[in-house]
Structure to design on (236 residues):
């Protein structure tokens, strides 16, 4: 079920490249990448799990409530991340010129479906 | 000059709360907060400078090019961050229901003006 949902996300967003669902210790449950995607989505997940840890701590220190989502843009990609419960996150990597708003919307609607299966 | 530019950013975006320009070691050059803003923008800057360090390392590991911008959403706020050259960043904190797209646009257009003064 996860594989299909991840594929729908990547293929449903202009500029979508790859997607994964990972637990917060950096273990991927499932991933999907378009053929020829220039980044390894599992490596992205592992690198960003460190970033997510730093953000969770920052949100706690600031008493800003639970961290929900983040986005990181570099010269070559945009990665959207949304937390799924306390222990998992969903990440979608897109081209920098991809449809960021659509990606954000699709992540938001996908999260409850993933949460229901975990 | 910085104070006025920061004020324009906060007041120019629906839901804008506070804004700062900080160097990457966590020292604020200048900040501006709306009266009654529920977060201390200098604390936000210090906390997020750790996150930015983690993101820069991740972008390097992934060979994804230079990190440019990030956004973090929690239950109570959204913070947009844009790097200004190698050593500074601009952060804007908004209410979660603020105009995210406008904030992102205004950050993008403001960065060259800050960069020219640094």
């Amino acid at each position: 079920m996860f594989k299909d949902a991840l594929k729908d996300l990547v293929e449903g967003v202009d500029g979508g490249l790859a997607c994964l669902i990972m637990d917060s210790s950096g273990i991927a449950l499932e991933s999907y990448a378009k053929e020829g995607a220039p980044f390894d989505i599992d490596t992205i997940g592992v690198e960003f799990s460190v970033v997510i840890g730093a953000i969770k701590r920052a949100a706690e220190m600031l008493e800003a409530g639970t961290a929900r989502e983040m986005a990181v843009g570099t010269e070559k990609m945009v990665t959207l991340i949304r937390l799924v419960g306390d222990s998992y996150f969903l990440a979608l990597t897109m081209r920098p010129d991809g449809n960021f708003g659509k990606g954000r919307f699709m992540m938001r609607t996908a999260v409850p479906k993933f949460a229901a299966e975990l």
